[in-house]
Amino acid sequence: MAEEKLTFKQNLHKIFDGACTVPNFMSLARILLIPVFAVLYMKGYVWWAVLVLAISGLSDFFDGKIARKFNQVSNLGKMLDPIADKLTIFTLAIVLFIKFKSAQSPAMQAFAWVFLLFIIKDVIMLLGGLAIISRGARPAPAAIYGKAATFVFYVVMLLIIAFGPEVGAISTLYPKFTLPENAMFVLVVIAVVLTFVAFASYIPDAARQILGKEMKNHTVTDETKDNSEE
Predict the structure, then answer these.
(1) Do residues 19 and 76 touch, judged by C-beta distance below 8 A?
(2) What is the mean pLDDT of the chain?
(3) Per residue in 10-29, pLDDT tens?
(4) Can you tell me whether residue 21 is helix, strand or coil?
(5) Which residue among 21, 45, 63, 168 is the one 20 to 30 A from 160 at the CA level?
(6) What is residue 164's DSSP assignment?
(7) Residue 88, Cα to own-chain centre: how many angstroms?
(8) Rounded CA gap, 227 and 230, in Å?
(9) Distances from the Cα of 171 to the Cαs of 43, 161, 164, 176, in angstroms?
(10) Which sequence spans correspond to the domains of the chain?
């Protein structure tokens, strides 16, 4: 028997049903804070940018816990949380790429391209998610690997923005607290590795969803054809 297809209006109702929750407002606030952080950081208000990023990271840590503890898990929340994560990572990668490219240190200029790996990964995941949705399946929720990688990413980026050479809020005022370049590079590489490990963990499930959905559609088509021939 073929699955009943929902109309666009029904799909919207399903997504926004029970959407007025504290975790969803926290995720929405994180999205709204992204351009605030970018403007503050690029304009040189690094301390305020660090504060905004810290608030964003804390809200990301607590929104899921609140949703589960108070039974406020929603379809919209399952979409907003990863969207907020990806937009934050995308923005951080772009501003740090720009900052590193404009640094006086040749090593930092050469290392700037590493931040593009975060952008490439998120673009691939976005395209993959669209491919899954277009086949009638649903992207998998964030797994433990993804959450761990996001947490490490936030920590590393905060360390760079606070203590990084030439780009850090604290290191600019107090040079003795500057994070050594090599240590900073190692931290970024660790974040990159964890990010791609998390990315790899999504691939099997995504493949199962796409292939499983296609096999199910073929089965439904064959059954319909057999019934029509009887």
Answers:
(1) yes
(2) 80
(3) 555 666 666 778 888 888 99
(4) coil
(5) 63
(6) S
(7) 7
(8) 5
(9) 17, 9, 7, 7
(10) 81-229
